[in-house]
Design brief:
Blueprint lengths: L3 H12 L4 H13 L1 H23 L2 H7 L1 H28 L5 H6 L6 H10 L2 H9 L11 H29 L1 H4 L2 H23 L6
């Protein structure tokens, strides 16, 4: 795989671009601390593992080629993102002016891992990404199976490393971000971002 390092550089650039995963990791780190942020990251990367295996064994190709399946995953994923965003915005409105204990209690029954997993797993754009981005770095003379597996594993590891740094940074400034005014602003922004990404995903066209 002669283009491996180019693949690494391009992957890093794509990973650090803000997206629904970033918004969710930010929100859960503020709400739950570093533990909640890392649980979200573990959910996100678990979703990436499933997408990698799907790409390796050809399931993603079926998803990309089937307009019906693509639409099902697209709308389920979009609804879930919008639900997370609206829940955040509604909680912000409902808990305006409450004490910190009440602010934390609304997250008590939520699973950051499950949120991260479903946000990533139900996003068909990730499947499309694996089937369109990874093949550009395939080398002749080597089995695509092994190359896909290596690139998928590399992308997952890079994602983990980036989000460890990102969550650690958010947790470091969490004291400032936990101030009621700052937290309301961040929670509101992340909620609207998740809704926006959900709407954007809903209007995503299936690849031709």
């Amino acid at each position: 795989m002669g283009n491996f390092w180019l693949f690494v550089v391009m992957s890093i650039l794509l990973i650090i671009l803000p997206g629904p995963d970033t918004g969710l990791a930010t929100q859960n780190t503020i709400a739950h601390g570093k533990k909640g942020g890392f649980q979200t990251v573990f959910g996100i990367t678990t979703g990436l593992v499933f997408h990698t295996l799907a790409a390796v064994f050809g399931l993603s190709a079926i998803l990309v080629k089937s307009a019906v399946l693509f639409s099902v995953f697209k709308y389920v994923g979009a609804v879930y993102l919008i639900y997370l965003g609206l829940t955040s915005i509604w909680a912000l409105k409902k808990n305006k002016g409450t004490e910190q204990e009440e602010q934390q209690s609304k997250y008590k029954h939520k699973s950051p891992f499950r949120q991260g997993l479903l946000t990533n797993l139900l996003n068909p754009k990730v499947a499309v990404f694996f089937l369109t981005f990874l093949p550009q770095f395939l080398s002749a003379g080597t089995k695509p199976f092994l190359q896909f597996l290596l690139m998928g594993a590399t992308y997952t590891v890079l994602t983990i490393l980036w989000f460890i740094l990102y969550v650690s940074f958010i947790n470091y400034i969490r004291t400032w971000m936990k101030k009621p005014s700052t937290q309301r602003a961040i929670q509101g922004i992340s909620g609207f971002v998740l809704v926006a990404f959900g709407i954007k995903l809903a209007f995503e066209k299936a690849p031709s």
